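Before drawing any conclusions, I looked closely at one protein's amino acid sequence and its backbone structure tokens, quoted below without any editing.
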Amino acid sequence: MAVRIKSITFDCADPYRLAQFWLQLTGFSEDPDDGNAPDDPEALLLSPDGSLALLFIAVPEPKHVKNRVHLDLVPLTSRRDEEVGQLLRIGARMVDDQRRPDGGGWVVLSDPEGNEFCIERSDAERAPLVEQLGRAFDAVAGLISNIRADQWSAPTPCTDWTVRQMVNHLIGMNRVFAALLADQPPPPRPSADHVEDDPVGAYRDSAAALQAAFGRPGVLERTYHGPLGTATGAERLQIRLYDLLAHGWDLAQATEQPADLPDDLAEQSLAFARTPADRAGPPRSLRPGPDRRRTGPCHRAAGRLPRPPGQHRTLSR
């Protein structure tokens, strides 16, 4: 069974006034053949293509409690904070500010009659997440490209894995994540050998496919359920980034190469992986040294990285 959402209806005291607010917010327009009037009991706004309507209907009861359903809105031509400022100037009210120092988060506002809605980051503001993943992919690709023929069977800091097995893991996890984001079954594991005859090509192809998957509209905001647990696309990206950088460092050590990995992404990934009790401690690096953290022979598996409970939306907005 499938349905099409024809309209979203707002019960309100003043349909015309509320419609004027949402007209400015959404860019929807009045019906050219039947415009709204101040004394009408209903007001209508239409999306640019006419496929969705916002309908405002006068009711005698005032709003008493928080919305059970609300809209999550993404700015098209401005940034989140600019949009919030503009909306406050035209009559919106601040309900809850969930913005974070790292630029993530969202803002809960209400319209003039108290209906809550959220303003999230624009697509342009979220794009750097995917770009960061691309930087990490490129750095690890450089390490794989410089592996000598005699090093593929060498041991790694993950004591159960050779260099070949570690590269196999990186390629395989790229394909697992890409399949998850596409709602497809994961490729066979653990018996499948993803390194194949062209390990560099296999890695680059799998990395490009995963980066493209994360870059599709709506992927970072969506919540995914599967063998890796429940998380948003943005959280999945952070999980992949952590595993990639940790094993990139391992590859560098195993093959005696400089670990030229992006320091800013390493610190960001490790901050994401910390448990709440650990977050008060000093920043750690994924570089070698006594501060480098492990919880087993191969660090944490991607799906078992600790995340603060109840924070499903934190990285999605």
Observations:
- The helical segments are 15-26, 80-89, 123-145, 163-181, 199-215, 233-254, 263-273.
- Residues 123-304 form a domain with the Four Helix Bundle (Hemerythrin (Met), subunit A) fold (CATH 1.20.120.450).
